[in-house]
Amino acid sequence: MFATLEAVKQMPGVSITIDEVPDVPGEEVSVSGEIVQLWRPSSSAISQVGLIADESGKIKFTVWEKSDQRGVREGDRVQIKHAKKNWYQGRCSIALTYDSRIVFPERDWQWWTA
Fold this sequence. Notes:
It is built from 2 helices and 7 strands, in the order αβββββββα. It is mainly beta. A 5-stranded mixed beta barrel has the order 2-3-4-6-5.
């Protein structure tokens, strides 16, 4: 049963908890949580940078300008789909590329999908 659960977590698009991000094999992950902090990007190539958190922890995210993503605000509850894992100085973070997607469950709800 645990092998099946681990296999499901590795499937593209399956949302995992933030504390699982560093340990899940592969380069791509999907997470859900709240945007808890944003700060000024250090480069014009970066659209947004900040922290997303869930009940298990928090992780830095970077939205690249060329990824053409919707902007987020502190307090937004979002799903980040198909983000790329990055490692810098022993810390794991995620980056949104052109293949990634930000979903706002509370804003994007459509009556015909319920």
